[in-house]
């Protein structure tokens, strides 16, 4: 499993929602994105969102190894 976290550097650009709407949505009150589910099965679409984030705010961690998954 992978864990998706979004840091406070998120500016709410919405790129992640556009790339991977099944994994991210925008919290309008916070003005930031949030993962729809924190823990997900590995999926390249999540890494596409990581690569497209202008703030490098999304981190994906492999829960078995504890390692950050590179986009
Ligand atoms: S792409 Fe990055 S900066 Fe934009 S909403 Fe998603 S996490 Fe935030």
Automatic annotation (TrEMBL):
It holds the Pfam family Fer4_13. The keyword Metal-binding applies. GO terms for molecular function: 3 iron, 4 sulfur cluster binding; metal ion binding. Keywords: 3Fe-4S, Electron transport, Iron, Iron-sulfur, Metal-binding, Transport. Its cofactor is [3Fe-4S] cluster. It comes from the Bacteria. This is Ferredoxin. It comes from Dactylosporangium matsuzakiense. The lineage of its organism: Bacteria, Bacillati, Actinomycetota, Actinomycetes, Micromonosporales.
